[in-house]
Amino acid sequence: MLKMLVKNVANNSKLLNSRFSNTELGFVVFGLTLISFIATTANICVFIAYIKNQSLRTASNWLILSLAVADTWISAISINFYTVYLVYGYWPLGKIACKFWLSTDYWCSQASVAHLIVISVDRYFLIRVPLIYRPVRNLRLKYVIFFVWFLSFVLWVPWIISYQYIVSKQDVPVDKCYIQFLTDSVFLTIFTSLSAYYVPLLTMFYMYIRMYTFLQKRKRTVDRVKAPNYFSDLTVTSVSCDSVTQSNTCLEVDSTANNKVLSQACQTLPKIKYKNYDRIKKLLILIILAYAITWLPFNAFSVISTFCNTCVTAPLWNFGFLFCYINSLVNPFCYALGNKRFKAAFKSMFIFKEINKNPNK
Fold first, then answer.
1. What gap in Å lies between CA 245 and CA 309, rounded to an integer?
2. Residue 270 pLDDT
3. Coil, strand, or helix at residue 93?
4. Going by C-beta distance under 8 Å and a sequence separation of 6 or more, which residues neighbour residue 308?
């Protein structure tokens, strides 16, 4: 699509967007194509790693895989439609293609955001109440993933397609492509911004703050624990283990000695490396910042434009759209490449290719 687009634009100067010079237009096409390629490749690597490595086929990675589905569609399809719209300066593909682009784009974008919320909640429960959550996790996650896609579909697709028939008017010009109800109703605009950005952001922030504080408390407990004391004498009081897990699940009863002793979970606790805590903290901060920054401009512009039609110019809208798409590029690096097993899988894939190229090494 992009190759044909560049050829047509080069052969017909009338199609050029007057806001860009030929050089600027070339940079725009190259930049968006590069973003699309890198984001699509990164998300496809998630699929390849998942298929080739049995150890990656866990419930946690179901969420990552489903997230990659949404981000792959956005990076491979939505960005290219957006590039056509941006380069031409108007929508040249007709109303059916417009509805298709908007419906699938907003559907997958909403699903991507919803996955981030589910991942944050899932990780919180895994850290906070692992023994209660793990037995029911696999079955529930399957239903949750289905519900995420279904809810994201219901929130956008039916209304994008049918809104003009509901209100019995079509206000979107033939050469434009945008969602009509976002410009017709202040209530709908604010509601969609809340559901797509502000509420998810607050939910993620709350979940990750809870995880962060819990991990900090656990780290302080580990700092006070002396490993030799554990392994030299397994008889301990309930206070030492309860301070780590905040429950009695870490203790087991020794039937022969009638004493409470450390379970395997507590015995391995002193082996936890402090750098793991720092890695988790950095990853959590990165996740929140990536989502907050990439989605903020578009959602802020959406709210502002409902009260001031002239405040948000076309370049600002383009900037907001682009930043939303960049989130699909960031996600696989935050959630997949930040996972040790995925890192090992990707590394083995690239090393294998290198060995094949250099068999004598």
1. 54
2. 41
3. coil
4. none
Tell me the pLDDT tens digit for each residue of 205-237: 898 888 888 877 877 776 666 444 443 443 333
Strand partners, 261: 235, 252
**Global pTM?**
0.75
pLDDT digits (tens, 9 = 90+) for 111-164: 988 988 998 888 888 888 888 888 888 888 989 999 999 999 998 999 899 888
Query: What Rg do the C-alpha atoms of the chain give, in angstroms?
Result: 25
Q: Is 94 buried (19+), middle (13-18) or exposed (0-12) by CB count in 10 A?
A: exposed
Residues 216, 229, 274: CA angle, nearest 5 degrees = 30
> What is the domain partition of the chain in residue ranges?
22-226+267-350
Contact predicate 193/186, CB 8 Å: no
- Name the one residue in this structure whose structure tokens are 């010009």: 173
Alpha helices of 74-93 — where are they, by DSSP H? Answer: 79-88
Q: Return d(Cα 215, Cα 236) in angstroms, integer.
A: 23
- Write the CA distances from 161 to 38, 92, 156, 293, integer angstroms: 31, 19, 9, 29
**Superfamily holding 22-226+267-350:** Rhodopsin 7-helix transmembrane proteins (1.20.1070.10)
